[in-house]
Amino acid sequence: MDARYTRTDFHDGISRYGASLIAAVHRLTTAGEWAGRVQMHMLVSDEAQLRLLPAGVPWHRATGPTSPLEPTLPVQVNRLRPDVVFSPMQTMGSAGRRYGLILTLHDLIYYEHRTPPRNLPEPVRWLWRLYHLGYGPQRLLLNRADRVATVSQTTAGLIAEHALTRRPVDVVPNAPQPVAEPRNPDAAPARSLVYMGSFMDYKDVDSLVAAMPLLPGYTLHLLSTVPAERRAELEALLARRRAETGAGTATGAHGAGAGTSGEVVFHNGVTDEEYIALLREATALVTLSRAEGYGLPVAEAMSHGTPVIGSDMPIFREVAGGAEPAFLPVPLDGDRPAAFAAQVRTLTAPGAWAVASRAAVGRAARYRWEDSAARLLAAVESVADERAQSRSRRG
């Protein structure tokens, strides 16, 4: 299993997906139903990655995924003589491989929003832009694999719609981390709203911030690291909205407004423990993103019993379960700040929050890493069997 996308400081989406899947596969292949049938090893590019990966898994070092040597990776991996390799991304080098290969395509976001992740080196960012100008490069990469994995039925449908691969596609969903006990649905939540995600334009954090003057007494917690320029843009937006609505403009400890306007707190990065603590006291997790491959924070919030207010789009309805009271949709068009504020106020009706909290826990129970790992292992077995049969026919 390719663990080279694991971060060395704290998880992002791809890092957490890969590490969590590795941990679940390790459990199933050492003490679960797959014990004795599959042996798993990891590929890492930096030993510091092992801190965020499960202990006790054999590992091998290879070049990094953004290295110019990535096309030569199969030469390195062939020496290890694996039957099948799984990568949580689709860009793994594959030319000259002598093993089965499963690549992962999480979403098609960057075909519509072509701003690459900011943490990539500038030459890689330019290649990223070129790669997403058309579907040809994607088809070339995916068709070099034996099978393709994705994280949702929504993305699987888009892969089929755009004919991105001739290979079988398996849905290996994201999942929240196990929760020992959800929060008490009968305890009144704090008047706080939690956003976990990046500040890229398509995430539409602007509408969340613009809504806060309409929500006096509430605090919007923006948890992720934010570039200084982007933070300045959002603070200026908040000031304009306060002026337009006549809301109070007192300045709080975190540099955001208080008074008769809702407050905005820029945390600029939090630990997992801080994230969970904020999530378990909040009224809702909030996200007005216009595109997602899965939306893991949605499942994470529901697993703790925290309702979700989010964009009304297929992937969030898939993860959150349609129009269940755990998920309060906000239209993609129109006055989004006003529509968002109205949904927040919906949860203040007598008994509404408790009903939504209980529904959230019930929905999140459908997502487990062990189930995702079992789906992946079934795909691995299919690839291994098909390759063995092909060798037998040739022999």
From TrEMBL:
Taxonomic superkingdom: Bacteria
Segment forming the signal sequence: none
Domain (Glycosyltransferase subfamily 4-like N-terminal) ranges: 62-174
Transmembrane segments: none
Alphabetized InterPro entries for the sequence: Glyco_trans_4-like_N (IPR028098)
UniProt keyword annotations, A-Z: Glycosyltransferase, Transferase
PANTHER family (alphabetical): GLYCOSYLTRANSFERASE WBBK-RELATED
Protein name listed in UniProt: Glycosyltransferase family 1 protein
Species in which this protein is naturally found: Micrococcus lylae
